[in-house]
Amino acid sequence: MEIAMNDTYSGPFELMGIQEGKQIFSSLQTAATIDTTHIHLRDLGIEPQVSRRNDFEVNSVNWSVDQEGKITGTARFLAVTTHDLIKATLDGQTDPPTADQDFIVARVNVTFTGGTGAYTEATGTASVIAKLYNSGLSVGHIVGNVSIL
Predict the structure, then answer these.
(1) What is the pLDDT of residues 40-97, one digit of tens each?
(2) d(Cα 136, Cα 82) in Å, to the nearest integer?
(3) Which of 84, 126, 130, 143 is the residue whose CA sits 20 to 30 A from 91?
(4) Phi then psi for 84, rounded to 5 degrees?
(5) Cβ–Cβ contacts within 10 Å for residue 4, how many?
């Protein structure tokens, strides 16, 4: 079964420290409304689908950013109907910061790597474009597919 993702998530993120020259971050995000997508991501060309129920309501993300802006990390998505977790790895890049913006844009490739329950053998890929605001708010849009047996 293929589960399509075309969803926006938003929530706080936190700098957890610095390790081996990389900034370590953590976030918890929930499914966001179409209005949130329009307010935060329209200038990046993101147009959300018609409002629908998300298959994955919450996600947690742990990532690091090196001095060149390379992002690596992991994510977990919570399935709404079964409360199973879907695991993913992250690999991406931040755009160079600009003085006139209060956010940094991150572009991330997501690879789904299993999970719990019905998602034990989940696979698939997605791409994310997100704004990481100086205030600690993250708003990101994910597009891709999760496959389960």
Answers:
(1) 999 999 987 666 677 888 899 999 999 999 999 999 999 988 899 999 999 999 999 8
(2) 30
(3) 84
(4) -85, 160
(5) 14
Here the CATH number for the domain that contains residue 28 is 2.40.160
Provide the number of structural domains found in the chain: 1
22 contacts 133 by C-beta, under 8 angstroms: no
b/e for 100-134, b at 16 or more Cβ within 10 A?
A: eeebbbbbbbbebeebeeebeebebebebbbbbbe
Spatial contact of 25 and 64, defined as CB atoms under 8 Å apart? yes
In the chain, the amino acid numbered 43 is D
- 10 Å Cβ neighbour count for 23? 14
- Residue span of the structural domain in which 130 resides: 2-147
Whether the model pTM is above 0.70: yes
* Residue 41 falls in which region: left (phi positive, over 0), alpha (psi -120 to 50) or beta: alpha
Alpha-carbon dihedral sign for residues 119, 122, 127, 132: positive
Please name which of 145, 108, 141 lies closest in space to residue 124, comparing C-alpha atoms: 145
* DSSP designation for 43: G
